[in-house]
Every structure is written in C-alpha cells, then in structure tokens.
Design a protein that fits this description.
Blueprint: H1 6-10, E1 17-18, H2 32-45, E2 49-52, H3 64-78, E3 84-88, H4 92-105, E4 109-112, H5 122-134, E5 140-144, H6 152-160, E6 164-169, H7 174-186, E7 193-196, H8 205-210, E8 215-218, H9 225-237, H10 240-258, H11 264-275, H12 292-312
Parallel strand pairs: 1-2, 1-8, 2-3, 3-4, 4-5, 5-6, 6-7, 7-8
C-alpha cells in the first residue's frame, strides 16, 4: 500500500487501466460481492489502476447510494495495491456530491465526466471543472468527449488549476491532441497526465504513444485480461510485430463487432465478462443486451485472441 499522490502512481503505468463493469444480481440490484470479485481479479491480473463507476461501469445508471457502495467495494477489493479513481458527473452541484461520496468511500481520485446534456462554452467548462476540483481534495482527471471538447488554451487553464491533474481524451482528434500537449508543455506544466480514452483504445494507442501518451483505458481487460496485458506489454516494450498481431487478429475485429450495436462499448464488454464465467448481470436501460449471434462472434473472438497468445506472444 502506498500514500503517493495519484499522479505519481499513474505516471509510469505498470499495466492496463481497468474500468470494471458494475455487477447486478438477479433482481437487478447492485451486487457488491460479485463486484469486489471482479475488481480483485483485475488487480491480481495486473491492472495499474481501477476506474470505478465510470463509462464502462454504467455511471449514468447508478443512484448516488449505489455509486458509493460500488466505489467503497472497489477500495476494499484493491486493498491499496493500486489507486481507485471514481466517476463524477452531471451538473456542477451533482458532480460535487459524487466527489464527496467518492471521498467518503476512500477513492484516490476522480474522473470528471462531461456535464449533462448542455453544450457549454469554454469559459463555462473551465468554471465547472475548477469548482469541482475546489470542492474536493481528490485529484481530478477531466474527460474530454462529446459536449466537453477543449481548445489547447482551455486545457492550459485546467492544467494550471489546483487539483486538476490530467486529461482523458475520448475524441480521437490527434491534431488537437498534439496541439494540446504542446501548449501545456510550453506553458511550463510538466507533470500533467494524458490518457487515451477512446473505445477499444488499444487500436489507437500506437498513434497516441507517438504523442507521448502512454496511459489508456482498456475495456477488453474486463473480460480478457491476458490479451489486454499482452498488448500492453508489447506496446511498452516496442514489440511492433506483437502489437500488429493482436490488432489484426483480435482488436480490429472486436471493434468492428462493437460498432454493430448502439451501446455495445458497454453491453458487449459486460457480456464478455459473463462469457468468461462471472455473472455480473445485464446492462440497465437505456442500454440493451447484444444480439445472440453477436455473442457467438464475441466468444469466437475471445478464443482467437487466446490462440494468438499461444502462437507467439
């Protein structure tokens, strides 16, 4: 267990960043015991951090009470071995409430989701994240996507704000990301963290590494940690042939399957966890379960990924 600040603990990633699904029981209620097991298995498999109740964890579908239950369960399951970062979102007042619930549950940091529904200007976005960071001692990582896309100048303001330690990019605009990294560096902020937050981030991680971004979220780690860890190792060690093998044989086909259904970035991942033997329940509405033939394709893809590891990873 370590008390080092979050940024220091994440600066040199020892493994993929784990975004666990949220487990529900047969009655649809949150199942903390299964959730703890899911998180514990991920940590034991080599996760560098646990991001609890974020996008893959259906933050949008959880009540504040359920959110806190899950964050506390994640903290208990990790036992201090890796940091736990919790989601926080909606408007400023609710984001602050979630931040305090996460703090009380023992989280090490926050992933700040885009504000709910509204498309705000840069000035308003800066105010929102500054007020969130000022309201909690937990370090904040800002999630850039959808209705919260920032200019490089705005990211410089955020990077200079007390308590904001990083930016997770879910846009995929590499030109914007390069200009952002450059602007923050030119402003003299050297310890700001950047994350590749695109769905199936392994596909784009070689490009992000070219920008100096080594941290990325791995949804695949939820259901196939051995594949995700092999890809992380190949990326970290410069094994380009190994990365290409996994991208061509597993990650690209998985992304193509993911794109065949709305919400599959969550529901297909959760189905994968069930296919691997852990009953975490179904997704909550408005998400829906994958079609039967898509589940069969996913099962075959998992087998293909494991075969690739046996062939030479």
């Amino acid at each position: 267990m370590t008390s080092a600040p979050l940024a220091a603990r994440l600066s040199i990633p020892s493994g993929p960043l784990f975004f666990p699904v949220t487990a529900y029981g047969p009655d649809g209620a949150v199942d903390p015991d299964t959730y703890r097991l899911h998180v514990r298995r991920g940590v034991e498999a080599g996760a560098a951090a646990v991001f609890a109740c974020c996008g893959t964890g259906e933050f949008h579908a959880l009540t504040p009470e359920e959110f806190q239950t899950c964050v506390r369960a994640a903290v208990e399951a990790t036992e201090g071995r890796v940091p736990v970062v919790a989601g926080a979102g909606y408007g400023t007042a609710l984001a602050v409430r979630y931040a305090r619930l996460a703090e009380d549950a023992g989280a090490d940091g926050l992933l700040a989701m885009p504000p709910y529904l509204v498309k705000a200007g840069q000035e308003g976005l800066v105010r929102h994240y500054r007020e969130l960071a000022a309201a909690t001692p937990l370090p904040v990582i800002v999630y850039q996507r959808d209705n919260a896309v920032f200019t490089p100048a705005t990211v410089v303001e955020l990077a200079r704000a007390e308590g904001i330690v990083g930016l997770k990019d879910g846009c995929g605009d590499l030109d914007l990301m390069q200009r952002t990294v450059s602007a923050v560096r030119a402003a003299g902020v050297e310890d700001f963290l950047y994350f590749n937050g695109l769905p199936t981030a392994e596909l784009t991680q070689p490009a992000y590494r070219g920008l100096g971004v080594t941290l990325y979220s791995s949804a695949v780690f939820c259901f196939a940690p051995e594949i995700a860890l092999a890809c992380h190792t190949a990326l970290r060690t410069g094994d380009e042939a190994g990365v290409r093998r996994l991208v061509d044989g597993f990650y690209r086909p998985f992304a193509e399957l993911r794109d065949r259904g709305q919400g599959y970035a969550v529901s297909l991942v959760k189905a994968g966890v069930r296919l691997r033997g852990l009953d975490v329940g179904e997704v909550r509405p408005p998400l829906h379960e994958p079609a039967g033939d898509h589940l069969k394709q996913l099962a075959r893809l998992i087998e293909r990924g494991q075969a690739l590891l046996e062939e030479g990873m």
